Amino acid sequence: LSSGSRMLENREEELTTVRVQDPRVQNEGSWNSYVDYKIFLHTNSKAFTAKTSCVRRRYREFVWLRRQLQKNAGLVPVPELPGKSTFFVGSTDEFIEKRRQGLQQFLEKVVQNVVLLSDSRLHLFLQSQLSVPEIEACVQGQGSQTVTEAILHYAMSNCGWVQ
Asked: Which of 17, 71, 114, 151 could form a disulfide with 49 if both were Cys (CB 3.0 to 4.6 A apart)?
């Protein structure tokens, strides 16, 4: 074995698994019903504060996240989100499943991009249950906690596993 290949064996490969699962309709039957999705994250990457987390997010929060990432990423292209369909042909279940797959592909691409991974909004989106305004306040230093504290607080509370 050359010394080069031995060094590779000793270096643990960083892996991040992100899954978008369990779509749930909230306020079903009312005019303000929406679907939220469970985002499960498991990683050994040093980029993340918590090694596992589980949060629920809705589509419009993904839209906000993508917009923020785009603002901060400069020339780095941000992956596309699945479309917001008003006239969907087919069953609602089929639409929700297509969207779930699209959201998962979006997050998989985002967490593989070093530039996007450095955005603290992404970490709060994936690893805390803070609302969008709370994430903004936290990132701007106006919240009661730092980004790391917010993530650790959520991780310690075990909320991520109750859902």
From this structure: 151
DSSP output for 117-159:
HT-HHHHHHHH----HHHHHHHHTT-SSS-HHHHHHHHHHHTH
Spell 15-31 as b/e; 16+ CB within 10 A means b: ebebbbeebeeeeeeee
pLDDT (tens digit, 9 = 90+) per residue, 133-163?
A: 999 999 999 988 889 999 888 888 765 444 3
pLDDT single digits (tens) 91-139: 688 888 999 999 999 999 999 999 999 999 999 999 999 999 999 999 9
- CATH superfamily for domain 16-161: Phox-like domain (3.30.1520.10)
How far is it, in rounded angstroms, from Cα 49 to Cα 151?
7
Domain range annotation of the chain = 16-161
